[in-house]
Each structure stands twice: as structure tokens, then as C-alpha cells.
Task: structure prediction
Amino acid sequence: MISFLGRLLIPARQRVGIHWTILIGLAAAFIGIGIASGLDVADTKGVDWVEWLIQIALAALGVAVVSKVRLRH
Result:
């Protein structure tokens, strides 16, 4: 879900398949948890909005990078 939301943030068409999208989302989720924990915003009362925003931003960055790399090949 995180990677699909990340894809929505990128204005251009992405040439990234579903498998890459899922892998990028998983990586963004785990890295985002680590960053949120380091910033001490991982466990809050209610919904962890800051953690989600970090994860979605990382997913958008990951999709953009993979899309650029795949365009070159």
C-alpha cells in the first residue's frame, strides 16, 4: 500500500512493475520504521502519521530511482 501511495506522488509515468513496486514498498516500510524510531516518532498515541509520511516519501523516492534506472536499460 505504501509503494502505491508513493507512486501517486510522482507526476510522470513510471515503468516499474508490480513486483518492483511491492519490493520498494517493503524496503521503504522497514527503512521508514528505522528512521521514525531514530526520530522518536514511531510510537505515538493514535495513528503514526509522521512514520507513514516518511515511508511514503521513501517509496516515492525508490520508485523514481528504479524507474530512472530501468529507462536507461
